[in-house]
Amino acid sequence: MEDRYIATVDLGTSKIALSVARVSGENAEILFFREKPSEGVRYGCIYNPAKASVPLKEIIREAEEELSIKITQVVIGVPRYGVTQETASAKLERSDAESCITQEEIDSIKEMALDSYPLNNPAEQEIYGASAQSFSTDDSMNYTESDVVGMPSSVLQGNFKIFIGLKKASRNIDIMLNKADVALARKYFLPTLTADAVLQNEEKENGVALIEMGAGVTSVSIYQGGILRFYHAIPFGGRSISYDIKMECGFTEVLAENIKLGFGACMPDKLLTMGDKILQIQDEENGTDQLLPVKYLSEIITARAKEIIDAVLFEIQDSGYADRLRNGVVLTGGCANLTGCANLIKQMSGYNVRIGFPKTKKLSFSGCPGIADTSAVATVGMLLFAREDKHLNCTEEVPFVKVPVEEEPDTAGSVLDSSAWETKEPEPKKEVKKEPKPKRESLFVRWTKTGLKPVEDFVGGLYDKLEEN
After folding, report:
1. Which of 26, 125, 179, 414 is the most buried (most CB within 10 A)?
2. Around Cβ 119, how many Cβ atoms within 10 Å?
3. Strand residues in 315-381 grouped as ranges (E)
4. How many CB atoms neighbour CB 234 within 10 A?
5. pTM for this model (two decimals)
6. Tell me: the pLDDT tens digits for 103-161?
């Protein structure tokens, strides 16, 4: 069987990730995985397709040169934020009551439900995805999809949860790909794929909340009985935490992000002796020094992290499934590895919490270690799902159709209005106060053009000494 290639694009608020996998029969080998800072993206939505296309075009060129292939189309996900959920149903009268229900009929009734659903504003909305909730036959109700296939019945009725997003947000993806000279292969609703890449079947069956914390968006997906029951996303994430550090300390955005990644931790009371340390940050470009207590840094981070977690816990409570999460919470995404974040969720919610790493046993990825990180869960989800599509080959020549760029409608106040985003940056938390300057050990850190360089081996010490309770 001839090899085929799958190329996926995970477009986030802070980074864009491209992966390329070679599929040979049932085997899939990841040959390329790389990330670049994204542009023209806020809250996971593209507001400037021209800017967003620049890093995409660069990273595709790098993959083509390294692998000696031509990438003609890519798999990508629709935005996570700005999605609403509704219910839809459809009914099928079967001519032969004694014949067994087939998977084709299940797919057909799903299409019927989606096609017949009355969108409030078809000019601005489109359906991103759907999740089957239950099926009914002549004499029984509340069957799952796997149960109803093979049953005889004269009637088949299906109930679905559908996820509706902005048409313009989806269209801006098409425009970005057009400007990057690459075609669209498939467009997926990412929360379901991420769950498949992280959660175990037992967790989905028993009840679990999957919290995905990215840079600009934090989402929660609730599974119970093996079915996606609830989804919601809020426009806060790791970038909000970095923004607080930037505003409180007067750092640049890049420096604030590096300090968060290098020395950030939640729950300052659990830092033990590390809470007595002070970071002495020297900027070699302008020759200035600044002192930052580690405990104060943790207080800044914890204040914003609590706000994000509170919002997520409110959505879990509002879903009606808060008391049915037997497997608690799974935390994933780029911010999942923020020290103490999982423990903070456990303390605030009472749920058991584990860090969700992508399931990579079905993939080989020698030379691409980043694919096993929590930030790559969406990429792994797309690869696992796209691998099953036997007709998908992202290196085949495809008819390339230019997407006409129409005059953009007025989007003031919407998720795609960049001016509205500028005014909606999270306010810095005011309740945290600087610690008085006790006698503390100073940890010298140098900030250069190439990044943050601690003189002492401090980062490992922080992680090792943080009390995990």
Report:
1. 179
2. 14
3. 329-332, 353-355
4. 18
5. 0.85
6. 999 999 999 999 989 999 999 999 999 999 999 998 888 888 888 999 999 999 999 99
